[in-house]
Amino acid sequence: MKELSSLQIERLKYQPKLPSSLQGGINNLTMTEGNKTESVKDREQIKELFKNTYGKPVVTFNTSNNKEISEKRNIGVILSGGQAPGGHNVIAGLYDALKQANPENKLYGFLGGPSGIIDGQYIEFTDEKINAYRNTGGFDIIGSGRTKLETEEQFQKAWQVCKNLDITGVVIIGGDDSNTNAAMLAEWFVKNNAGIQVIGCPKTIDGDLKNEQIEISFGFDTATKTYAELVGNILRDANSAKKYWHFIKLMGRSATHVGLEVALQTQPNITLISEEVEAKKMSLRQIVDNITEIVVKRADMGKNFGIALIPEGLIEFIPEIKSMISNLNDTLAALENDSNYKNADENAKFEIIKSKLNSQDSSVFSSLPTMIKQQLLMDRDPHGNVQVSKIETEKLLIEMVNTKLNEMKKQGAYKGKFSAQCHFFGYEGRCAFPSNFDADYCYSLGYNAFALLKFGLTGYLSSVKNLSAPASEWVAGGVPLTMMMNMEKRHGEFKPVIKKALVELNGPVFKVLEQNRETWAYQDKYLFPGSIQYFGPSSVADITTETLKLESSAKLTAV
Hints:
Elements: H1 6-12, H2 20-23, E1 29-36, H3 43-49, E2 57-63, E3 74-79, H4 87-101, E4 106-110, H5 115-119, E5 122-124, H6 127-131, H7 152-164, E6 167-174, H8 176-191, E7 197-202, H9 220-241, E8 245-250, H10 257-266, E9 270-271, H11 274-279, H12 284-300, E10 306-311, H13 319-334, H14 339-342, H15 346-356, H16 359-367, H17 370-376, H18 393-410, E11 420-425, H19 427-430, H20 436-454, E12 460-465, E13 475-480, E14 485-490, E15 493-498, H21 508-523, H22 538-541, H23 546-558
Parallel strand pairs: 3-4, 3-6, 6-7, 7-12, 8-10, 8-11, 9-10
Antiparallel strand pairs: 1-2, 2-13, 4-5, 12-13, 14-15
């Protein structure tokens, strides 16, 4: 039996492309500084919390003719949060740049996420280790975790571990919360004259870690293409069998970038956008009515089938439910050490929760099916929030649509057949073989992260821009983490976190969906993107997302 698949053997040979500004070598770089920066919101509070790292300039790199000799350095790297395709290539790019700078440099990988740097669990990377993971999916090279770095004790332990290994720089690869960790650690190290730099890399398949400097987070490209293939397969099946409605929930807790991108790639009949639901203050009943209207009209056309895309986080964007969940998060936090609540049976817990919520939120909680109540009371995520991914919104919508259709059937207003299937695509996309785009982008991010360390920067996020152009035209640099931060309520307290980028309803990506929604609902303009292509013409193998193309085009038009 082969140890590697044929595809993995070929992918290991792939050499990722770098921006031309980095192609001259890590020791042949010059850095240009821009203007000082401000946080996106809550500036006085963020400035007070990050006195030593706030307000730094955005930087860019270019090739220099002057070759600088690099001193010997040891660097540590952490994979943090949920998996995203391309994480291994970030480490490979970091490793290659580090060894190119000075062959005596060492790269240590902390095991199991941020806890590794606290507990001193690590490995030293070698050529053999790195070469076995190039261009592969997953985070299994060192594992990941969701430990928060925020206490004095944790910082002290991390410092001691770094001192023991003579580490002078740490790269944290993660999403918004993981890079908040990076900002906190960077600030603490500077404040305590630790002599250790911290650099972040933007990861999340959700696509909600982006701004003017970070055009896209890595993993989004591969994950959405993977989901689009699966949705396309179901579209083909639905159009073949012509007897099932498929309700497909897609990963993306706080933003609907994934669902919107998959919709543009496949053109299903219904696509719900959480941000639109919130902006229009749509109730759960209105959402159900809208879906039911399309189901009935299609049935009148002889089409008792269709596909609806449901965002993972939809339920907490519905105003009355969002209010209830917010109140519930605070209530559950207050009951965390309440023995009466902890020892109560399920029905008693429901009654305790109802008595603690305000009257309106209590009424909403009471109106939900038992299945949804149970899911709302499951263990909370590391930030103290309800785990929305465990709430089976797709089943809730199917049940409510079916109930309404049965009522209409009794009144003679509906004569079709409604047979529904539900799906949730999440883990299927997190560890896929990275697309050529993500392989190149991630390698560039890692290589660029060492450039930031080489120039003595800390509290920065590795930034590679102009991503809709060929890789050689990408722009490498860095953006201060504090520039992206605001204050948000976590575990009942306001804390500094990187602000999530939600779908902009006035933006070019949503506008395409909005303009085509009616046509796609009834005319079955299905697209079947197929699997990710790693070989062949650039027009097939190197394509990126519709989101990035539309947003980049809009920027060019604005200029």
